[in-house]
Design a protein that fits this description.
The complex is a heterodimer of chains A (about 280) and B (about 300). Chain A has about 280 residues and is mainly alpha-helical. Chain A has 13 helices and no strands. Chain A folds into 2 domains: about 60 residues, no CATH class; about 180 residues, MetI-like fold. Chain B is built from 13 helices and no strands. The chains are: A mainly alpha (about 280), B mainly alpha (about 300).
């Protein structure tokens, strides 16, 4: 079919071929320049014993564990606030969602200044309430940098969760709430007995999207900490990038990347599984 | 498609119900509404103030930006960071690079996705299910994990250090979403309309252009908007595939301001550059919000 050929060609050239190529590279000691040898599974066994790689995996998991909750809670609360169409709700939705539109890279550059000692707004504001010194340097300390980045990411991503949950909430038939009202149900009862159960699919979807985003974190760490101090705040994608394009261990880096592909593919498969109702109904 | 204007499940007795029954709002409702406004406004400030603050900072000279904030700063606003950034760092050149890549990506994605969406929605052919699945599978593959093979492949093809190459890369990873949205758009069109056109002797291509276009424009707008915003804000791909300074996109130019300069970072410039990067996103979103939300409701956007 001629109409779909271009799409197929693009996907074949930029996704399917690289994917197969990646598997091949990961089985070699590919340097950027010069000859390479087939070394079988050595890269993979080396990964398992590489403290730097393992740290980046654990760090990514820790980061994901920290941010997923606040992003979801914030997004859910905001969705409850703005789901009805009443005065101000459109404005609130736009305001809450704006950071997501602008993008984490741009916002990380903005945050860099505000996290500086002596001049940043973070120290200024927290200093006023006695939570920080005017000289706290946020980006060069493991715990402080992780804290700051988690706050920024929550601020950035909660709007997306809000939008996804709000769409689900608006899809719940109003009759259910009216019936509950006539039965004298309280607000809390309606939330826990009607909204939450019917929202399961949207909740799962928003969590999956948020977790994938966290697993692929790069911009905020690269811009704000460069993975430092040392490599303590280096997430997996940054490990791959550094190993491939700074250390020129392309084969080794790709082995790590394959591991990431597998994990993400499994999570996304769950996402597509959740979406299957829409898809299969529309197909045919 | 769930529309945002759908009557949403309200909390007990919104002001709307009270008004239609011409009764004064119950006290509890009025308190609830006030609470909603207060919480909403405070939360909005949390999201908007940092952005507004960044804009304000971008108009402060570097000597002030590197000192603790104070109310007096607002008495010294200047456009110096912007003029300096334009003259000394040629920021408009990088903005143009970003714009070229983003527009190229948006147009190419719209073209290819529209063709494929139409093909998938209207025609059955051997293996169409498999092909559609292959396109969707791309959504499962994070491009961040394919940087090494992509770099080697694109290098061999002469597509690294090449804005067109970057646009091709961005287009590919926007295609699954675009194809999905376009296919759904075409599926929602009443068949009779295109059948009538066919009866009148229009070819499938002719039908696509004359009859279906007006019905399809919202889908295309959604695809274009996502592709544009994706490539305008993308960072790690550009970092990997662009190596010469004069091809850098805006985020890389900002990175240069952070790490490239010898000695002290010019934070005033960095802030002004970030604001420049922010503007198209805000303008496009505010202008085309309904198309963006259409895309979100398709439910397949990746965060």
């Amino acid at each position: 079919m001629l109409l779909v050929a271009p799409s197929l060609a693009m996907v074949a050239v930029f996704v399917l071929f690289p994917l197969g190529f990646a598997v091949y590279i990961s089985l070699t000691n590919w340097p950027l320049i010069g000859p390479y040898h087939f070394i079988g599974g050595q890269n993979y066994s080396a990964l398992a014993g590489d403290p730097e790689f393992i740290h980046s995996v654990l760090f990514t998991l820790l980061y994901t564990a920290i941010v997923t909750g606040p992003i979801f809670a914030g997004g859910y609360g905001m969705a409850v606030l703005v789901r009805s169409n009443r005065f101000g709700s459109t404005f609130f939705r736009t305001a809450f969602f704006l950071p997501f539109i602008i993008g984490l890279a741009t916002e990380s550059f903005m945050a860099l200044l505000e996290l500086q000692p002596d001049s940043g707004a973070a120290d200024y504001l927290l200093g006023k309430v006695g939570l920080a010194h005017a000289t706290t340097a946020w980006t060069v300390n493991y715990g402080l940098a992780l804290t700051a980045i988690c706050v920024i990411v929550t601020w950035f991503a909660a709007g997306l969760t809000m939008m996804l949950l709000m769409a689900g909430m608006q899809g719940i038939p109003i009759e259910l709430y009216e019936a509950a009202d006539s039965d004298g149900a309280t607000w809390w009862q309606k939330e826990t007995r009607i909204t939450l159960p019917l929202l399961r699919r949207n909740i799962a979807l928003s969590l999956i999207i948020s977790v994938i985003g966290s697993f692929l974190a790069f911009n905020q760490f690269y811009i704000l900490t460069e993975g430092g101090p040392g490599t303590s705040t280096q997430p997996v994608v940054m490990w791959i990038y550094e190993e491939a394009f700074v250390q020129y261990h392309l084969g080794y880096a790709t082995a790590g990347a394959i591991a990431l592909v597998i994990v993400i593919a499994i999570i996304t498969a769950a996402q597509l599984y959740l979406l299957r109702d829409d898809t299969s109904a529309a197909r045919r | 498609m769930t529309s945002l204007t759908t009557r949403a499940p309200g909390t007990a007795g919104t002001s709307r119900t009270s008004r239609t029954t011409a009764r004064a709002p119950r006290p509890a409702t009025r308190v609830g509404f006030a609470l909603y406004l207060i919480v909403g406004t405070l939360a909005s400030l949390v999201f908007l103030l940092p952005l507004a603050w960044a804009v304000a900072r971008s108009f402060m000279p570097d000597s002030l930006v590197t000192q603790a904030p104070s109310a007096q700063d607002f008495g010294h606003l200047t456009t110096g960071n912007y003029t300096g950034l334009i003259q000394a760092n040629d920021i408009l050149h990088y903005a143009l690079n970003s714009l070229l890549v983003a527009c190229g990506t948006a147009l190419l994605t719209a073209l290819i996705a529209t063709m494929a969406g139409y093909g998938f929605a209207r025609f059955r052919f051997p293996g169409s299910g498999v092909v559609f699945a292959l396109v969707l599978v791309t959504m499962m593959i994070p491009f961040q994990a394919l940087l090494t093979p992509l770099f080697l492949e694109m290098h061999t093809l002469g597509l690294t250090n090449n804005l067109a190459g970057l646009a091709l890369f961005y287009t590919t990873f926007n295609l699954p979403f675009g194809v999905f949205v376009m296919r759904n758009t075409f599926l929602q069109i009443p068949w009779e309309l295109s059948e009538a056109a066919a009866v009148d002797g229009a070819s499938p291509t002719r039908t696509l252009i004359s009859v279906l276009r007006p019905l399809v424009v919202p889908g295309i707008a959604t695809t274009v908007l996502y592709a544009f915003l994706f490539s305008w804000t993308e960072f790690v791909g550009a970092l990997t595939f662009l190596t010469s300074n004069n091809l850098y996109t805006l985020p890389l130019a900002l990175l240069n301001l952070e790490y490239g300069s010898v000695g002290q970072v010019n934070f005033g410039y960095l802030e002004a550059g970030a604001v420049i990067a922010m503007i198209p996103c805000v303008v496009l979103y505010l202008g085309l919000q309904r198309f963006y939300i259409r895309g979100l409701m398709a439910g397949v956007v990746k965060g």
